[in-house]
């Protein structure tokens, strides 16, 4: 193991320790002494005095459990923000990963959303289309904008607008049990360094299956596909089939490509040959992780950097005979890339979540906009960002975060660190060029057609061809025959 002070960017969103786990909440690296709100370094120089002289204002924020200790620090974060800006109050409303979208949409539909909500950047176009986001391009100071790395910041843009600040950039991939991989004769180090094709992947996961008397005790591959993870599996796979975004560079809808059908067929193949459970459509994030820790699968997905830390935490509980997942075994977590399909280049699925700025039906004052920007920047930078990303094993994406993380250390497997760095280097780029209306229509098509059809495909109720034709028909209806990929 090595100690890293500057970690590689990977995601988040993720899970709580041991049994309590969701698709996006994450496990702690144990740096409780570093938790809490931001410091003066979180604010651009010269702003504090101006803020103190301003009128009283309250900024509201709807925030999920971004990392293991994140929500437990809300009181301190509110106090530290008020100390930084004495005239401003930050009021944080906690939400779970399961209900934050419903809470936010309810408030948006009522015309009174929070000033700031923590959401995925892929949801920005939806709210821009509804006219409920606050463009902070002019209000964000050059010092604020310049603090962020360019790639993750671009994910918070749509067209020419900037709609918040990123919290982190995470790579969503898959991960394996080192012992099981080696027992199956899989050169996992080569896979980390060079990637693999779907054909190579399928052969590997077959070797990981353990069955006796017609009953499978270990699967080669399990991916969470239920609940908040319903979209993840397919979205991660299709990026590696020549479709890194819903639209190609010519702004034609991409998922009508024949490669989309190739991926759908692969999904069914893995279920039909016994490499994945037939009941995969009912596996949520918690069950997926429980199956991994209890040795019921060799490879799991989606895989996040913080899973290495979560496995270590459970290993320690096994040694202490205190609080480990029931029936769990010791696991060394291995970061693995998603396989490629149909000769396409490898592309990592980059997830950028962050603090998105909302507005109500009434036009906000310039003063309130400036105050919201201060709050969003405070949450996305400095000590708050450094502490959160450190818990998630994520590299800092702001210079202020890198400065604040000095002295924070984390044990990281060097092979996993190198693999994460490689995956980060091939991350899918942001697509702010996709018009708001197209992006919103793509999200509607995903919610209304792709997700339910994919669940039916996983359950064996429809064929890959059935789903492909349904998606293609819906896409042509939305975007026109000339607006979709024909290959």
What is the CATH homology-level superfamily of one domain? Answer: Periplasmic binding protein-like II
| CATH architecture type of one domain | 3-Layer(aba) Sandwich
CATH fold node name of one domain: D-Maltodextrin-Binding Protein, domain 2
- List how many beta strands DSSP finds: 13
Which residues form runs of ≥5 with pLDDT under 50? 1-52
Helix proportion range: 40-55%
What CATH first level of one domain would be assigned? Alpha Beta
Provide the structure class: alpha+beta
- Largest sheet geometry: 9 strands, mixed
Give the radius of gyration. Answer: 22 Å
Number of helices: 19
| Mean pLDDT rating | 88
End-to-end C-alpha gap? 47 Å
Cα shape: globular
How much strand? 15-25%
Organism: Paenibacillus protaetiae
Pfam families: SBP_bac_1
Family: Belongs to the bacterial solute-binding protein 1 family.
Subcellular location: Cell envelope
